[in-house]
Specification:
Layout lengths: L1 H11 L3 H77 L5 H19 L7 E6 L4 E3 L8 H7 L1 H6 L5 E7 L12 E9 L6 E10 H10 L7 E5 L5 E4 L11 H7 L6 E7 L2 E10 L4 E8 H4 L1 H31 L2 H14 L14 H59 L3 H19 L5 E3 H18 L4 E7 L7 E3 L3 H13 L6 E9 L3 E8 L6 H6 L10 H17 L4 E7 L3 E9 L10
Parallel strand pairs: 12-14
Antiparallel strand pairs: 1-2, 1-5, 3-4, 4-5, 6-7, 6-10, 8-9, 9-10, 11-13, 14-15, 15-17, 16-17
Length: 601
Amino acid sequence: MKKLWNLRKWFRNQRIKRKIIIIFIPLISIPLFVLAYVSNHIFTESVINKTTVNVTGESRLIITRIEESILNAENCANIITVSLNKIIPASQELEHDEFTEKKLVTQIVNQLGLDLLFFPDVEAVAFLDMDNQLSASNNLMEDGLQTAFQSGIIQQINKTSGENIWFTMEARDFLTTVKDVPVLTLGKKILNINTGDQLGTLILIIKESSFTSIYQSVEREQERNYFIVDSQGQVISSLNKEVLLKAPEKNIIQSIWLNKKPVTDIIKWKGQQFLVSSMPFEKLNWKLVSQIPLSILTEDNRKITWFIVSLGIFGIVFSFFGAEMLSRVIAKPLIRLTKTMLKVKEGDLKIYFSSNTSDEIGFLASGFNKMLEQIRELIDQVGTEQKQKRHYELALIQSQIKPHFLYNTLDLVYVLCAMNRVAEAKEATKALADFYRIALSGGREVISIGEELDNVNDYLAIQKIRYIDVFDFSIDLDETILHDQILKLTIQPLVENAIYHGLKPKGTNGRLHIMGSCSDHEILITVTDNGVGIDPEISQELLNTKKSNHSNKSFGLINVNERIKLFFGNEYGITIHSIPAEGTSIVVRLPKHTKGEDNYV
């Protein structure tokens, strides 16, 4: 407190010029710097969100094309299986000699090449028969057969029961067309369709460049890199060949690999931030990862930010010149008048500015004091008019809601009479009479909660006659609030709304529960049903008098809400909590210890 006093004392002792500078610099610089920060943050978030949406679309397209390549390879293997089942068993019936075997190898090679024409994604295919005779669509695949046996690929394929088996992307010098170029391998054990005996082993390869061409065919920012990570955390395909068949940065793997769903995150790597997005490829347990420097995305934002900062610096410089000019023309009486006006701005309308001079300051002071007097008179006048307006609006809304229940009840009595249910018609008529005895209340608009509860009981008695199989109800109100006051016809329209728009459309027997509780300062009355519920978008607009179309569903709710607000104040009213297909709760919030209408109107 002492430091604050010393600061104020120091400020008061400064020259006007310095005071203006001290005030002007924060007023000019702080909003501009805040604007720069906020705009940069908002624009960055917007760019990231848009980029995320674009990357998601591109990733789905890439995944779809990769799936097509994988599926084409599997279809190719299946077609070759059928073709080999036609060639090999037929040759086994012939006499085996050198010419027959060469002819068989030629047939297999030709058939492999023919089948491969329909599947351009497959680079090459090779078939190893039971005599370890290798036939390939490309002669280069025949190199290193012994190494292939040692690698275990053929043994793993032969352990299967004929299903397709995929091997991870690798660079090798066997069973490939180009040595040390990464290829994806599909293996299949070829079985005789009729006998189930093994005919041989089929091996297909897809070059990594096939996947790279897919990335390049998609429209993207030049700096964005796509790569695929396998289940071992190894990059098996990438536009950046330097990271191929290597493990990416550890923090990238931790961020994306543990999440089975598409994920987007900002990751720091090698002193630079990247926007990294991933999408799973479940068939082979891969992840398609997109990586783009955040600095590229936010380059325009930084330019805007620096421009705003430059304006702030210019504003600070300009404030010095402005302070110099103002300090020459501002006098002490004007500063005092300004302080007085600031107090008025803060809401103090009882203040009076005294001036003993007859110059311009005295004339300004006289007009200022006269203006304050007129404002006070206008405020008093507006307050009186607002009270009258509330009386008029309350009477208008009350006149709208009173006939609302009467029409429905008379319709019920008519139906009961038409069905010759005289006893129930008499009971309904008696309940209607009791209802309006309380509703009219000798012209009073405010009744006790106990009277309102009796009113609701009469209404529910009528509705149970009509909808005996539609709902059951229970009432649980704290007895301490029964003598507190409430606007009549507050709870009944909410109950009516719950029956007609919640329980009746449900089609099965429902439950209606009315509960009341209180605290030191307010009363809460809740009407709950387990009906069909309300769509969240609709429930948000039901109480909006500007957007609502005043349908039957919203008419009673709007009237009750507006009456409460007009009578008790805007801090009171009703709120709606609803879950579609589960039910709706409407909470009425009222002040406690009300004494009468005049306290609130």
